[in-house]
Specification:
five-stranded parallel β-sheet; alpha/beta; Rossmann fold; 14 strands; 19 helices; 3 domains; elongated
């Protein structure tokens, strides 16, 4: 598809020169001779790339102002700034505001085309990466047969024909966004947008602008997340990070089902399904005065809890095999065969939860080409013990301070707990693996105070 370039320069000779070069290279070209013409062209249709002179007709650096306005409308449009009176600070300011490149006049045709092609390639790569990641994320499934995960799957199935607001809680990396996407995918809104806004990553000074959008003095409109998710699903990730003042405005939107853009007078009707998540205990946040109780009740119509991976280790074999297959498909290499009985998978605490496990499988898949199972286990051990070495050292030093009897009991307790986790709590299989009679294992577990495994 032919790319369209917008040339903004108050010098007619420069515009005609650059325009001729670009047309000869097969580009479509539009021109603007001053600040106001540039705004009209931008509002008419965003270009694939903009070439902007630093100095136009409204002041010394009005091209910089134009860059800033364009980036607010769409941050992904690449902008090449040009100037015949350039200095280092001017170039720095342009790049800080998001310019792709800064060129000083006079410039060669080769240099201009080089930057232009790189800008287009950069945008295309970003788009391809986003599409690929989106397809990959959509293709992921919720894996596991533990009681907690079966409950989550059942809830998702029940919610597909409902419009209820949902609150998903659980530690970071446990799969909250994946659950939200699955709910959207199975709902009647599945063909509409699924928009994610992360409360922890929003600019504290621009919460309302990003959520509700704005009407600008130059007659342009910035659309907020509520409008971007029209008729679809809006996922408010880490909702507890949003300030109380903005929480009040979100509550008003949920009550009235409408809002006004910043600086706007027109009321915009809301038709979105709200799913919220938090890795914090939201009840504690409410009790501590950090989150509005009335908003909490509005969002928490159907609660879903995702446990940490360490509390559902029976799902680890299925997760290992699933991620190994998925990562091989994505990267186009043979699926790595992981030893799902390797004790370290069940002894490790998994602070990063399922996300950390997936990252480990990806790392091992890349590093273990043509390796045997023993070498693969060594790679796993190197990766995980590196992260937990300080913790293990503390544990080791603590055990050294115990009398022999207590140290042995501590070892047996940890060992048997690990084996039970690996065998999904099955006493018979655990007893067979460790070489004990089933009744003897029962007595030992009772003596050690090991009551069961989650």
């Amino acid at each position: 598809m032919t790319k369209e370039i917008l040339i903004i320069d108050d010098n007619l000779d420069i515009r005609q020169l650059v325009s001729g070069i670009l047309i000869d290279q097969g580009f479509r070209v539009r021109e603007a001779a001053n600040f106001d013409q540039a705004l009209l062209e931008i509002n008419k249709k965003l270009p694939d790339v903009a070439i902007i002179d630093v100095k136009l007709d409204k002041g010394d650096n009005d091209g910089i102002e134009l860059l800033e306005r364009l980036k607010k409308i769409d941050d992904e449009v690449p902008v090449i700034m040009i100037s015949g009176h350039a200095n280092v600070q001017m170039a720095i300011d342009s790049l800080k505001l998001g310019a792709f490149e800064f060129i000083q006049k006079p410039f060669s045709t080769e240099r201009l085309l080089n930057f232009l092609n790189r800008a287009i390639e950069n945008v295309e790569l970003k788009k391809e990466k986003r599409v690929l990641e989106n397809k990959l994320f959509h293709s992921y499934e919720i894996i596991g047969n533990s009681q907690s995960i079966e409950k989550v799957k059942s809830l998702i199935n029940k919610l597909k024909n409902a419009e209820s607001r949902i609150f998903i809680s659980g530690p970071a990396g446990s799969g909250k966004e994946l659950v939200a996407r699955q709910i959207h995918k199975q709902s009647s809104r599945s063909s509409k947008p699924f928009v994610v806004v992360n409360g922890a990553l929003l600019d504290p000074q621009k919460y309302e602008l990003e959520l509700f959008g704005a009407e600008n003095s130059n007659e342009t409109t910035n659309f907020g997340f509520f409008e971007k998710a029209k008729d679809g699903t809006l996922l408010i990730d880490e909702v507890t990070e949003i300030p109380l003042e903005t929480q009040a405005k979100i509550l008003r939107v949920l009550i009235d089902q409408k809002f006004k853009r910043v600086n706007g007078s027109k009321e915009i009707n809301v038709n979105v399904r709200i799913i919220s998540t938090s890795s914090k205990n939201i009840r504690e946040e409410v009790d501590n005065g950090n989150f509005r109780e009335d908003l909490y009740h509005r969002l928490n119509v159907v609660p879903i809890f995702l446990p940490p991976l360490k509390d559902r280790t029976e799902d680890i074999p299925d997760l290992l095999n699933y991620f190994s297959k998925k990562i091989a498909e994505l990267n186009g290499f043979n699926e790595v065969k992981l030893d799902t009985d390797f004790d370290l998978y069940y002894n490790y605490n998994w602070p990063g939860n399922v996300r950390e496990l997936r990252n480990l499988v990806e790392r091992i898949s890349i590093l273990s080409v043509n390796e045997n199972s023993n070498n693969i286990n060594q790679l796993v051990q190197d990766a995980l013990t590196q992260k937990s070495s300080s913790k293990n050292l503390d544990s080791y030093e603590n055990v050294l301070s115990f009398p022999l009897k207590e140290a042995r009991e501590q070892f047996e307790k940890n060992y048997l707990t690990s084996q039970l986790k690996k065998h999904k709590g099955n006493i018979s299989k655990t007893a067979e693996f460790i070489g004990m009679e089933r009744s003897a294992l029962h007595r030992k577990l009772k003596t050690l105070g090991v009551k069961g495994v989650n």
